[in-house]
Structures are given as structure tokens and as C-alpha cells.
Amino acid sequence: MQITLKNFTKSFDGNVVIDRMNLEIRDGEMLALLGPSGCGKSTTLLAISGIHRVNGGQILFGDRDVSNLPSQKRNVGVVFQNYALYPHMNAYENIAFPLQVRGQSKTEIEKAVGQIAALTHIEPYMSRRPGQLSGGQQQRVALARALVRRPDVLLLDEPLANLDAKLRLEMRSEIRRIQQETGITAILVTHDQVEAMSMSDRIAIMDQGEIMQISTPDDMYRNPVNRFIAGFMGNPPIVMVDGRVEGTAFETTSGFRLPLPGRLGGLKHGRPISIGIRPEHFGSTGAHTVAGTISFVEPQGRESHFDVRVGEGVVLRSIQPSRRDVAVGQPVEWPIDIESTLVFDEQGKTL
Amino acid sequence: MTRNFSIWPVVLILLLISAPIVIMYSYLALGTVTTTEPGDLLPSKLALDNWRFLFDTSTAAGNIWIATLNTFVFAASIMVIVLTVSATGGYAMSRLNLPFRRFVLSGIMVMHAFPSVTLIIGVFLVLQFTGLYDTMIGVILVKASLMLPFGIWIMKGFYDAVPWEIEMAGVQDGASRFTVWRRLILPQVRAGLVALGLFAFLDGWGEYVLPRILAPTNDFRVLSIVLELVGNPDRTNYDFDLFKTVGVFYTLPVLVIFVFFQHRLMDIFGGGTKG
Ligand SMILES: Nc1ncnc2c1ncn2[C@@H]1O[C@H](COP(=O)(O)OP(=O)(O)OP(=O)(O)O)[C@@H](O)[C@H]1O
Ligand SMILES: [Mg+2]
Predict the structure, then answer these.
(1) Average pLDDT over residues A299-310
(2) Closest Cα of chain B to A51: distance in Å?
(3) pTM score, whole prediction
(4) Among A127, A271, A277, B259, which residue's Cβ finds the most Cβ atoms within 10 Å?
């Protein structure tokens, strides 16, 4: 089911949180809504689910305008951040509840719950109450409850936020598997860019109630439209250096110079710009080299992160396969892949 | 539970402080089943004839079982009314976007703070006007409504502690607001309902002033009124031992309830403290 938001506006007590947002989620795709805390992700989700009433604009499921339909009639499955399982019911009763209120027969319910339990791998725990389940198991029960009545849309509000690191990895692929097996249209809210990149078909980045860019994870990483998004995608994050145009090069006030990428010819001399260098573009390949001293080494097992001081107040980060031949304080001269760097204008727009 | 201090000194101090009350009550209870020679400290022999009133309707206590049943009906009706209204009203106060919600809430607070006796003249007029004066239904309604501010406030506290997400999930699952309340929310506040119910029952069981003032001549006699009749020293057949024994009889159910439900009663303080 395709979902379309047209000029969707939401305010709380006259306080506009989302102003005329337009968004389209394609049939069967998993879209990640990514953004910092308080930018309106949950608000958008709750509006789609029908819990928040919209203050303006339309929400369409397919061609059907559902803006004024109550939640009960929208057929949307939601997994809440804290799962919101019913504490006094066991897992089976939790999953069966949506079918019961629809008045389905006992045998129908048993069959449907059995199927969904098999899909989410929770058969062994069906008679346990939420309090007797681990976080990951609760998560699966919540997912099963959202899916059991075959909703048109599945909404996930930070479904992995309460899990530990290992379980998070496991549930990430698990949720994706279930979404792909059922072919359901899904929206995933998260503020973890790794989660967004690994689980979704497309990512929509939000900031202060606005969608800044929608794109595939790869494209968003390579071609962010502005500095905010470039900073949001990638871990360890991109390093930004502020300076200005000096002929065909970039120079900081302290005198650190880099040539500009070839695609950016004819920038006005003296124009303030900033340059963004991702850690993987410094230290491995490239025609231009910069010299500096290593100021920090963070070994990560398979790879190492290095901070290199290359000038007055300028520290670049590099990520390389683990190496032992360099240590803090040592002078190095490493290449930079100039063509892969990102350049932003004064307002933060990508040039 | 592990403690990092010794419990015995605390128990000892509490024992010492409560000793006078404990001794007095023990003597009271003991005195109903024994006789003590004047001047002696300890009872000398077992005597059950103080409890004769249980079977013998000719004592000053009259038919005690009818009065007990009356008291039970009285207390139970109050409990039912308080529970029903508090369970629904507390939910509305906690969750629904009512007009004048703030005003009503502070009104409830003020009502709660008012001593109920100050309202008695107004209540009297209303009962007269509606024809409920000197009827037990009238007394029950008055007693229950005086308890409601407390009940609604307590239940609101319990409802406030139930996460909104449960409600959202229920609505999303296709249930109506009413089904959500009955099947998903109500079970979460059960502890509060049990505590409030016990509280209302005990309060009704012990009520004396309202039946006395608002239904002075009514036949529907509750135990507190019986106790007053028996304990009136101006009566010709005044019997202090009977007075004592009826008093103990009257307290027994309360004791039993306390013994079995004391933990449940304490729940009120857990939920009610949240504004
Ligand atoms: N019921 C409400 N009443 C008033 N303001 C609200 C309400 N719900 C959300 N807001 C405000 O709307 C803004 C967006 O909130 P929202 O919950 O959508 O953020 P979010 O992107 O989900 O953040 P997080 O990642 O922290 O969950 C916030 O500034 C918040 O304070
Ligand atoms: Mg949120």
C-alpha cells in the first residue's frame, strides 16, 4: 500500500511541530525516518497511525484519504518503542487481542496466531506474560501483534532502542526479513544512522519537522544535499574544516591548504566554504598528500581510527585496516582522495 | 529483602509504644468471655453468657444478625457506588480531554479537604427536598458521595501510572475506547480498585454520624446505632458487659479484613501520591 503525505501539518497547542511536509512511501518498501531527537519523527508516525489528528494537509493510503479516519479503521500495525504489550495477558493473548476485538472465531484466531508466531519465532514463549520475556522476545511479540491482522502498513517507532548491542544486530536483520517476507509497506523511525542504512530501502532525513532529503542509503551517504546530512551519515563521522576559496584551492585561516575537487571549477576567490573529509578518504589512496602528526589512535580490532593534526587547529580523521607501525606523536604523510571530499557553502549546502 | 541494620531495636520500640493500646484491647476482648472478681487483675473463670445476644433477641441489642446484615448491605452499597464512580471518573480525569478539567480537578481537591460535617445542613436540605430524608438509600448516597472525591483522586493516580502507549496500542489494534478501558486499562489498576473497595467498605462499616442524623427513626438499624442504644447508660437494663461484647463483635470483621488485606490496603499510598 502506497502512503502519501500531502502538506501534512501538525501543531500542539498552537506550536507548529511539522509544517507542510510532503512524503511518499512506495508500496512494499521500508522507509527509514531518520533525525535527531525532537524533530517530529514520532509525531509523523502517530499521525499516520491515526492517533494524532492532522491540523492540515492529507494522508493517503493508496488513493484513499484517511486523514479523518479514526485509528481503528486505518488498519495500521504499530510497534511502540517500549513495545506496549498488555502486561496482564500472556504472549498468545496479546497477539490474539486484535483478532478478538474484530470478532473472529476461535479457530481462525488460533490459526492466524500460530502462523505469525512461526514467522517471528516465538512459539516456545506463547504462555508467558510480558514480564517473563526478555527484551528481544517482547520485541518479537510486539511485532507479531502488529502483524497478525495483516495491516496495510507497519510502523516501527525505534523498535531496537531498548535492546543491547548484540540483540540489536540480530533483530535488525530479523525485522528486515519479516518485512520482506510479508511484503508489507513499513516505516521505521530511528535516530541511529547505521540502523537506518542497514534496514531500509530508502532513508528520509528529518530535521525540525522538515524532510531534508530522501534517497537510498548509498546515495545519501555519497551525495548528501547539505552539511547536516553529511554529518549525520557515517560513523565515525565526517570531519569538517572551515576556510575559504584561494584560487583553485581551499585554505583555512591558519594556512592549511587543500586543492579543491576538479568538479568545482570557478568558485569565487575568497568565498567562505567548508570541506568535509570522510575518514575512509584520508590515509589510503589519492594523489594529494598531507603531512601531520598523529594525535590519537583508537584500535578497533579489525581496523584503527587515527586522528592526525595537519595544521593549526585542524585535525583529520582516518580509518584504516589495523596497523601497528604508527603511534601517537609520530609524523606521517598520508594521501587524501580529493575527488571524494564534499564541499559546502556558507549556508551548509553541498556544492 | 536484605537489611543492613538490625530489626530488633525497632520492633522493641514499636512494642513499647503500642503496649498500652494492645493491653487495653486484649483486656476488652478477654473481658467479653471471662469474669473477673472486683479488685483482681486477672480474670478468674470463663463465661460466655456475654455473647448470649447472638441468639437471644430479647437483650438490649435486639436482633443482632439483622443489624449485621443491614450494616453489611450499607457498607457494600457504598463500596459498589464508590468503586463504580471512581473507576470511571478517575479514568475520565486522568485521560479524557474534558472541558474545565482543571477546574473540576481542583474542585475535587477542595471537596476532599472539606470536613464532611460542615456540609451536613446542605445535605439535610437536599435530602428533605428529594424525599430521601430518613431513608437508608439517602444515607448511602450521601456517604458514598462524600467519599467520592477521595476515591476519584486515588484512582486518577493509578490511571496516571498506566502508560499511554498501552492505550494507543489498544486503539491501534482496533478496539473501541470503551473496550480498551475495560479489557486493557482496568486490569492495570486492579490494585487500586481492591484497596479503594476495602477502604470504602470499612468506612461504611464504621459509619455512625450520618445514619444517626439523616435517618434517625428508620428501621434499618446498623450496628453502630445498635451499639449506641446498648451503650446508653440512662437505660434501665444498662449492661456494661453487653456493651463491651457488642463492641468486640462489631470490630471483628474489620480485624479480619485488616489481617487478610493489609498489604492491599497499603497500595492506596502507592498510587494515590501521584498528582
Ligand atoms: N503531545 C504533545 N504535546 C505537545 N508537544 C508535543 C507532543 N508530542 C510531541 N511534542 C513536541 O513535538 C516535537 C516532536 O516530538 P516527537 O515526539 O515527534 O520527536 P521525535 O522525533 O520522535 O524525538 P525522539 O527521537 O526523541 O523520540 C517535540 O518538540 C515535542 O516536544
Ligand atoms: Mg520519538
Answers:
(1) 90
(2) 7
(3) 0.81
(4) A277
